[in-house]
Amino acid sequence: MSHAANDLLVSDIDAYLQRHDTKTMLRFITCGSVDDGKSTLIGRLLYDSRLVFEDHLAALEADSKKVGTQGGDLDFALLVDGLAAEREQGITIDVAYRFFSTERRKFIVADTPGHEQYTRNMVTGASTADLALILVDARAGVVTQTRRHSFLVSLLGIRHVVLVVNKLDLVGYAQEVFDRVASDFRAFASELGIDDVVCIPLSALRGDNVTERSVHTPWYSGPTLLSHLETVEIGARKDGPFRMPVQWVNRPDHEFRGFSGMVVGGSVRPGDRVRVLPSGRESTVARLVTLDGDLTEADVGQSITITLADEVDVSRGDVLASATAAPAVADQFEATIVWMDEQEMLPGRSYLLKMGARTVGVTPAQPKYKVDVNTLEHRAAKTLALNEIGVCNINLDAPVPFDPYEENRDMGGFILIDRLTNATVAAGLLHFALRRADNLHWQAIEINGAAHASLKGQRPCVVWFTGISGAGKSTIANIVERKLHEQGRHTYILDGDNVRHGLNKDLGFTDADRVENIRRVAEVANLMVDAGLIVLVSFISPFRAEREMARELVGEGRFVEVHVDTAVAVAEARDRKGLYSKARRGELTNFTGIDSPYEVPENPEIHIDTRLHSPEEAADEVIDFLLEVVGIVR
Amino acid sequence: MSPLTHLQSLEAESIHILRVAVAESDRPVMLYSMGKDSSVMLHLALKAFYPSTPPFPLLHVDTTWKFREMYEFRDTFAQDLGVDLLVYQNPECLAQGINPFTHGSAVHTHMWKTEGLKKALDEYGFDVAFGGARRDEEKSRAKERVFSVRSAQHRWDPKAQRPELWRLFNVRRSPGESIRVFPLSNWTELDIWQYIRLENIPIVPLYFAAKRPMVEREGSLIMVDDDRMPLEPGEVPVERMVRFRTLGCYPLTGATESKADTLSAIIQEMLLTTSSERVGRVIDRDSNASMEDKKAEGYF
Question: Which of A66, A241, A406, B182 could staple A322 via S-S, CB 3.0–4.6 A?
Fold first, then answer.
């Protein structure tokens, strides 16, 4: 390697190296066929950036004479064609990665062939590329293959494209030719949503505008290929929200528990609030641990180990994400699938899906359509064969956190693995969830019911007052609440008046609505118990089944059923709200005790006969039970 | 923050690869050859799993013909780091006394290294083995996967390799299969040296120029490292200022004349000279496709 032109290398090696220490990296893919001179171009970049070693050069000279296609001249294509078999055939058969470097950047080139395996190989190469270099032969212009390459580039989400109009020497370096090809391509690219296109007139064979500005194209004022590659701004996903799939739980001892992974979105700092997906638990970043000391910030692309402030459950495969912009979690998606295996996709078969650090079972449905990569037309499809691209719904065995591929490659790109052969059979891109997974705690909860209760210093429970209208449920419940409040207990009353006017105002008094009424009240009471409250529910709740449902929901031991019992005649005689007389007049239907049944509790925790006890006495009995049996104070 | 430098990107990617492999394998091992690439790979492993020590042993597939300084380096270094070091010498070679002088370089390398490695992996039952190979070393390596599946017979089938997309690696193995993992795939020789310099990674002193007893054979400068090396009639070792660009079995490793005795000077020399790295390895001379052939047989 001879950077001989660089005086600094000779005179001050340390200064020279310091410059190289700060260079950045660019990954790009080259698309084009053998005929477009792709290998020649890469060979030329390697050669002109003086990265061809002398012994490689000797081999190149020998090979050029033996199998070269350039007469006696150096055949640069031979520098990059690797495997013995393909060298003989004169074609590349796979994705090859080449490296070259200038003072400003290190380049990783994914070189993919333009023949029959193109889709599989190109998609593979494009998956890691920041930029695509699309070659066309100036004589042929934009051809079918160019469209195919551009489509794959846009599908894989590459935002930056360089159109290399090659072999310009063969059209006499004519500006009209270049302009026409460039404008054809721009029109096509914008249809695909590729906005950043730079077109460069070039001859790889002659070296025009590769690294040095060509004297043959005075009409061209844009950058040379290399100078563009050196300077193009590649926006990483720094602006997006923080994402890190947990690859490995780091536990050197009982004290330390860290979560190792690569930041694949946004950035993270100690003190940031993070959510663990799919569980939904939250915590705060305590430290960003590395061998070189703790970091104050980590960005997209860095491999780090995070410790959290709380002992939350985090496993390999989980995703740590910004708590304020967490990814969705789902188990059914619409996805684009690129099939890469000789054996075609079998809709309905279970494959493995690997995304981030998580592997789950997946079943693809029959494709909605496949895409003809040459015409971009949608065609009906029952399956996908090797190198076919289709859109289908997929069904996962377990919910996974994800972002649409368009927003984050690492959070929306997946591979499919055959369970029997273990081969990687497909690549896929998630677009959107068909429904959210329903078996999840969306806001689970490290501050749980126990934490709420302990802060309040009480054992929460539901006291469920049931009985016919006018039995005295609300009167007793109100006294109970007042006395508990005086003792410093945190309470709340749910009764028909405050629930039916709001939450349940859409419900009437049919049996179906009564069932729904009680279901909702039970759910609300249960949330309040979780919040740490002693909940006093005062509802007629005439049906045994719904009261049992409420008991099961809240949990035995925290559910106190109080039957406020009185004779219909007694209640009717009291009739404080005038409801009985209305019902008797037929102005109210479905009235419990008159024309709607009341199912008497069989084993209530407390039975109060309001004909024998005053409301005060009844309230005291309830409070005694709460203190002695439930143990609400602790 | 400013964008990551190329070395930071490479480091992060290698750490990612190391973690994927460890998380998804049962018995991982890291092949350790004391070379500069091994040193970098081990350094990256220390970073990847910190504050844990790397959760796998190092395996040195020994030929008994390495430079003495390499053995010294290996033993002190492994002790300092507190990592498990396994040394495997192919018992068949020991029994037959395989050496490069009587048996030739091809047999020597095949029996000690290729066969030795296979036997060691089988004996210990390792299912994932890290190697320090880089794609830029040789043309056929440019297409090597980062995770390379080997059959139960350790063979590499270039047609049956799995596509590698994004940062997703398929680590699943059928019974008997193993996976070679190359965390340094995307590093170049210059990257390696720059990183060693930036991170102060210890390397074997043979990389630095010093006066060493040398003989010249078939255009290569060979160091007379011990008295097992038979001298040709009239051949007398001469002290010459040399260093080694790659390390292997001393009778098979050519030196270059050099005064570069600091890292900066080594890098400067590398950038100014024009012969690539593996030219110092006698084993590559046979044919242009020889690395490919060796790989198909199970060589790393």
Answer: A241
DSSP string, A16-73: HHHHHHT-EEEEEEEE--GGGTHHHHHHHHHHHTT---HHHHHHHHHHHHHH-SSTTS
Who contacts A551 (Cβ-Cβ below 8 Å, separation ≥6)?
Answer: A464, A559, A561
Instruction: Please answer yes or no on whether A124 and B292 come within 8 Å at the CB atom.
Output: no
Q: Identify all chain A residues contacting B172, using CB atoms and an 8 Å cutoff.
A: 352, 417, 422
Domain boundary among A436, A470, A502: A436
At A110 the three-state DSSP class reads strand
Distances (CA, A) of B1 to A239, A271, A296, A537, B5: 12, 18, 11, 56, 11
Peptide bond preceding A404 in cis form (omega within 30 of 0): no
Give CA–CA dist A207/A225, Å, rounded: 10
Residue A90: pLDDT band by 50, 70, 90 thresholds?
A: very low
Interchain contact, A1 vs B270, CB within 8 Å: yes
CA distance B280 to A631: 83
Quote the pLDDT of residue A237: 55
Write down all domains in chain B, each with its CATH number in brackets: 6-191+289-297 (3.40.50.620), 203-284 (no CATH)
Query: What's the rounded Cα separation, in Å, for the pair A195 and B284?
Result: 47
For B139, the closest chain A residue by CA position comes to: A82
Specify the range with the lowest mean pLDDT, choosing from A453-457, A619-623, B66-70.
Answer: A453-457
Catalytic residues of A: 541
Q: Is the pTM of this model over 0.95?
A: no
Same domain? For A407 and A271 the reply is no
Mutate to test the interface with A, among B271, B273, B284, B295 (most CBs of A within 10 A): B271
Do A223 and A91 share a structural domain? Answer: yes
- Three-class HEC string of A495-547: EHHHHHCCCCCCCCCCHHHHHHHHHHHHHHHHHHHHCCCEEEEECCCCCHHHH
Contacts of A619 (CB under 8 A, 6+ apart): A476, A479, A480, A483
Closest CA–CA distance from residue A176 to any residue of chain B (Å): 38
How many CB atoms are closer than 10 A to CB A253?
8
A62 and A172 fall within a common domain: yes
A25/B267 CB distance under 8 A: no
Mean pLDDT of chain B: 86
* Model confidence at B229: pLDDT above 50: yes
Same-domain check for residues A543 and A614: yes
A445: confidence class by pLDDT, cuts 50, 70, 90: very low
Q: How confident is the model at residue B298 (pLDDT cuts 50, 70, 90)?
A: low
User: Which of A294, A322, A350 represents a domain boundary (last residue)?
Assistant: A322
Beta strands in chain B (DSSP E): 28-31, 58-62, 85-89, 128-130, 147-150, 178-181, 210-217, 220-223, 238-243, 256-257
